[in-house]
Design a protein that fits this description.
Blueprint lengths: L26 H21 L7 H6 L13 E8 L6 E2 L9 E12 L2 E10 L11 E6 L13 E6 L6 E5 L49 E2 L6 H12 L4 H6 L2 E11 L5 E8 L3 H12 L7 E3 L2 E3 L1 E11 L1
Antiparallel strand pairs: 1-3, 1-7, 2-3, 3-4, 5-6, 8-11, 9-10, 9-13, 11-12
Length: about 325
């Protein structure tokens, strides 16, 4: 798992697991293989000097969270070599600008769909003999940003020798080190490697210690008795056309008023944000001041102050 571990200024070189291209693995042996793979990963995070975890996080580390092993996510793929190697810079989460070529494509079926992933070769890395056959598969899927890391996940791959039928194992999908700590510059998966299915295999998202216990903010707006129709009916009933407007004859326009609904549902801090005339503005402020209590807005179920804006069409003839 090489490319999850780029940090600014240095390359962390780890021995890469080779993918078995021809040997058939029975289900029990396969589960044991994945269990050993995951135990090795966890030991790196817990004990390795290059672990992305801070010391306090390593002390509390009990292992990464994974999807259950599912052999359906170990698929056969057809490898198609790319004949035109154009060097490009793959964007990263940091300032690093690594150069890659698209080495080929993997075509496979999963969840009843024909899918493909592009495979890339790092131009700097390939200069080192032990990484000469190493390829890289960054990807996103329908779990990205939900159960799995928001930037995406990676797979390691090896240039096939003498065959175009290869194993593609999503149970070994891993996160970039950016998912675990700051200071890393990790490749962002290209759009062409966005899979339209849920890859419920491999490692899940990692919850950093400072994020534990935090809830995602779920706002719910305030509500007038009877909803929008109710508030418009209230204004229509209470609004009195000012005398100066009536004298002028025909008139039409939109006024917009803004006000704060307190955690107790009371209306206050009324402002006209789109004015029609001083008298029309004053009448709108008077009417809003007469409003009954609203059902207050909430964040995660807790009542909170909420600024509400309301446009209102005024017509007189």
């Amino acid at each position: 798992m090489f490319l999850k571990s780029f940090a600014p200024g240095f390359l962390l070189l780890l021995l890469l697991p080779m993918l078995s291209l021809g040997q058939q693995v029975s289900p029990p042996d396969y589960r044991e293989e994945i269990a050993r793979h995951r135990a090795h990963e966890d030991s790196i995070f817990k004990f390795d000097e290059h672990s992305p975890l801070k010391a306090e996080a390593k002390a509390d580390f009990k292992g990464l969270e994974y999807f259950p092993v599912n052999e359906a996510y170990r698929v056969r793929a057809k490898f198609i070599r790319n004949t035109q190697e154009t060097v490009f810079v793959m964007p990263t989460t940091g300032t690093r600008t690594p150069e890659y070529v698209k080495y080929g494509e993997l075509h496979f079926r999963l969840q009843g769909q024909n899918l493909k992933l592009s495979v890339y070769q790092n131009q700097e890395l390939k200069k080192q003999p032990k990484y000469l056959t190493y390829l890289f598969i960054p990807f996103t899927d329908a779990t990205t940003g939900q159960e799995t890391y928001a930037t995406g996940r990676y797979l390691d791959f090896t240039i096939p020798m003498g065959t175009d039928s290869v194993a593609l194992d999503f149970n070994k999908a891993y996160n970039p080190y950016c998912a675990y700590g700051d200071g890393y510059s990790c490749p962002i998966p290209p759009k062409e490697n966005k899979l339209p299915v849920r890859i419920e295999a491999g490692v899940k998202n990692y919850e950093k210690a400072e994020e534990r216990g935090k809830e995602s903010a779920i706002p719910v707006g305030p509500e007038f008795p009877g909803g929008i129709a109710g508030v418009l009916k209230f204004i229509s009933k209470k609004y009195k056309m000012p005398r100066d407007v009536r004298k002028e004859g025909s008139f039409k326009g939109t006024i917009e008023v803004s006000f704060v609904i307190s955690p107790s549902g009371e209306v206050g801090d009324i402002k006209i944000i789109k004015s029609l005339s001083p008298s029309l503005d004053a009448e709108m402020i008077r009417v809003v001041n007469k409003m009954p209590r609203w059902k207050p807005g909430t964040i995660n179920g807790v009542p909170t102050a909420y600024r509400y804006s309301l446009p209102y069409w005024i017509f007189h003839k």
